[in-house]
Amino acid sequence: MSRPERVSILGVGNLGTCVARGLVSSGEFEAANVLLTRRRPELLSSLRDDGFPVGSDNVAAVRESDVVVLCVQPQQLDGVLAEVAPAIAPTHIVVSTVSGVSIAEIRRFLGPDVAVVRAMPNIGIAIGQSMTCLAADEASAAAVGVAHALFDQLGHTLEVQEEQMVPATALCACGIAFFLRAIRAASQGGIEIGFHADEALALAAQTARGAAELLLSSGNHPEIEIDRVTTPKGCTIYGLNEMENRGFSSALIRGIITASVKAAELYPHAAAE
Ligand SMILES: NC(=O)c1ccc[n+]([C@@H]2O[C@H](COP(=O)([O-])OP(=O)(O)OC[C@H]3O[C@@H](n4cnc5c(N)ncnc54)[C@H](OP(=O)(O)O)[C@@H]3O)[C@@H](O)[C@H]2O)c1
């Protein structure tokens, strides 16, 4: 199975909604083939109106799907796994987006025969621009292609070792907040030098998009592009050097390391066992 026919998403909150809508927007899935659950399905009425089957019966959703995407909070996962384990067959593929819960822990409920893949997306998934890291153990390696079939529709994907899922949480899932804060800071600078707040934010955000697109389309190192902007004795190098004197790169690096350490503390079982 490279592309699943029917997908169930158990725990449709913020992330599950983005996954559901993203799969249908990609044109690869019909809403009728993406089954959604949460305990309060009445909160999914707009998704129901858009043709998604919606309910609170996790077991029924599992039985009617070939791929099960887990989107509940970490502390809710054990209960959901205990509930659906009897309905999960060896032909199912389980994809867990749940931060910090290892494949080995999921296997405690599902046993050794079911393929289990972990996926760590970020909120860019809402617009098909997630950076999603995927990890599988040896027994699930063949199922990674199915996870690609889902998450390639929702942005970019990269396969990593399971022990890299904690650093992936810091760099990608938390990371989107770090870049948003950098854009906010740039817009505040923009206001101080003469733009209205809405203009400053639009200018900063589009400039950030251009910077990211330059790197992604060329494959160049950032310094190659920076060298093109830094005229000798020009304003860019003065600005850059002032930022570095104030600890710009160091602050970002230390923030990412701190987030990774914290993610490991919050989710001590996240590494492969
Ligand atoms: N948000 C992100 O940027 C992001 C990024 C990467 C990974 N993640 C991971 O994704 C997971 C979900 O995050 P989120 O932000 O989407 O959380 P969320 O908005 O709280 O969604 C969790 C959903 O699970 C439902 N739920 C709880 N118990 C359930 C049960 N027994 N059966 C069915 N549904 C149940 C809840 O709805 P009811 O209370 O109505 O049941 C809720 O809608 C987390 O594990 C998080 O670590 C999130």
Write the layout of secondary structure elements.
Layout: E1 7-10, H1 14-25, E2 34-37, H2 45-49, E3 54-55, H3 58-63, E4 67-70, H4 74-84, E5 93-96, H5 103-110, E6 115-120, E7 130-136, H6 144-151, E8 155-159, H7 165-173, H8 175-192, H9 197-218, H10 222-229, H11 235-245, H12 248-266
Parallel strand pairs: 1-2, 1-4, 2-3, 4-5, 5-6, 7-8
Antiparallel strand pairs: 6-7
The structure holds NADP nicotinamide-adenine-dinucleotide phosphate.
Keywords, separated by commas or semicolons:
Rossmann fold, 13% strand, 50% helix, alpha/beta, 8 strands, 8-stranded mixed beta sheet, single chain, 2 domains, 273 residues, ProC C-terminal domain-like fold, binds NADP nicotinamide-adenine-dinucleotide phosphate
Describe this structure in words.
- It contains twelve helices and eight strands.
- Strands 3-2-1-4-5-6-7-8 form an eight-stranded mixed β-sheet, with helices on both faces.
- The longest helix has 22 residues, at 197-218.
- The protein is an alpha/beta fold.
- It has helices at 14-25, 45-49, 58-63, 74-84, 103-110, 144-151, 165-173, 175-192, 197-218, 222-229, 235-245, 248-266; strands spanning 7-10, 34-37, 54-55, 67-70, 93-96, 115-120, 130-136, 155-159.
- The chain folds into two domains: 7-160, Rossmann fold, CATH 3.40.50.720; 175-266, ProC C-terminal domain-like fold (Orthogonal Bundle), CATH 1.10.3730.10.
- The model has no long low-confidence stretch (mean pLDDT 94).
- It is elongated and about 70 Å long.
- It binds NADP nicotinamide-adenine-dinucleotide phosphate.
- NADP nicotinamide-adenine-dinucleotide phosphate binds at residues 10-16, 37-40, 43, 58, 71-74, 76, 79-80, 97-99, 120-123, 173.
- NADP nicotinamide-adenine-dinucleotide phosphate is lined by residues 10-16, 37-40, 43, 58, 71-74, 76, 79-80, 97-99, 120-123, 173.
